[in-house]
Amino acid sequence: MRAAPLPLIGVPACVQVPKELPVHQVSEKYITGVTDGARGIPVLLPAIGAALDVGSLIERLDGLMLTGSPSNVEPHLYEGEPSAPGTAHDPKRDATTLPLIRAAVEAGLPVLGICRGHQELNVALGGSLHQRVHELPGRIDHRSRKDVPVIERYEPAHPVKLASNGMLRRLFDCDEVKVNSLHAQAIDRPAARLLVEAVAPDGTVEAVSLIEPRGFCIGVQWHPEWPRLTDPVSKAIFDAFGDACRARAQARTHGTLGGA
Fold this sequence. Notes:
By secondary structure, the protein is an alpha/beta fold. The chain contains seven helices and 13 strands.
């Protein structure tokens, strides 16, 4: 009996300039998240904006995973104030991911957004962002510590409260989990189509999902992809995402997507 096809999961790249020429790249931990966590085949997508044939790509993919990044979503994309001097941006990634997210959501393509990807999901659907959460009254500093080894920066930092009617509450079978924290930006106004799934003690939105999804669609502000995919919270997220991608692959292979 022929084995079920491994799902093809798109992973948009960031554009960075380590030397003279731009490089499109994805951190290995996200690749491992796809291969070991979701048990799929990562398809790295260059950040080429309008040159990307989004419709054709959506037809060929079984999932979309949006990664974290050192860069921030440009504020003009959500009518925000200009960024503070020195803020890293990646306009080519913005130009690629935002239309890709909108097309994926409408097509019912499974979507998992992590950190910047969680913020991109919100902006793509009409929400806004705080650029520097640590400067807001009553908020804690959610940025990663630079005075400890990198693996320690990904250790759990604070709890999040899960919405009683949310997908994560059903996945985790509890009402609170502890997560890591490595971000300066965060959701300000959630998009109207998104349900707030999890909130930090200071009120920061830590997870969202699509209210009326045609397929799996969730964003998390923390990093479930590293260092332990076997952690129960990380495993539950990637298992659910991978299952949705495999179902999509099966339907695509057998021509039963039904126009989704």
